[in-house]
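User: structure tokens for Pilus assembly protein, please.
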Amino acid sequence: MRPDRDTGAATLELIALTLLVLVPVLYLIAALARLQSATYAVESGAYSAARAAVVAGLDAAGAGADRSASRAAAGSAAVAALAMTLEDFGLDPDAARLDLDCASGCLAPGTTLDVGVEIEVALPGVPEALTARMPLSLTVSAVASSPVDGFVP
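Assistant: Done. Predicted tokens:
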């Protein structure tokens, strides 16, 4: 009887296929989950920031603040709402960029306040030394609008 030369080949093939197929698929799933989480965070943060800015601006105007003070209150409320939302999703609020846009008459009744949010999301598992040499991140952005309702003196 001749010794079988293929003994153990199936185990070796299984290990090789696992490394070649399963590990990249798992990394892809982790990267897509991180991007999806960031997308939800930015969408939710833009909406929350827009609504918080309108409410805070109208509250300040109703309390007798002038236009610049109302805009400042709206801006600080938007930053706070965005920071809280991004922290809930595990993202750094300092890395986000927030744009408030009042096209016609900021905080005037019947207008809308547009908020844009943008953040860079690094791919998971990439070492710092590698990211310093080449950009291995994606930009996620969202825009939300909130109507300005109520009375503004």
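User: Anything notable?

Assistant: The longest strand covers residues 112-122.
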